[in-house]
Amino acid sequence: MRITAALLTLSFIAIAGCTPHQRSPDEIREQTARATSTAARDAKAVAQGIVQGIKDQRTININRASAHDLEKLPGIDDAAARRIIDHRPYSDSEDLVKRHVISRAAYDRIAGKIEAR
Q: How large is the average pLDDT for residues 53-68?
């Protein structure tokens, strides 16, 4: 990430230095500061996106999750979370459907976000 930001900054500096007309050192500093600021902002946005993606990829263990954690799943309300907890343990996440704890449609929405270990 830092390498990308550094390369982007150096690219802006190189481009700014290749203009045919003479510019004052102050103008060059201002343009460099703007380019650096933009590169830093973009690098931060990319890093935040990566962190969010990693958070989104975490799975919830249906054998150990609290009701609060289960309610974070799409379509799982307090009643469904309570049913999931009441029917523990599960050998496989598909047990939720096999045991009629939640519907197939509800399971399909959360299948990639849960596991049973």
A: 85
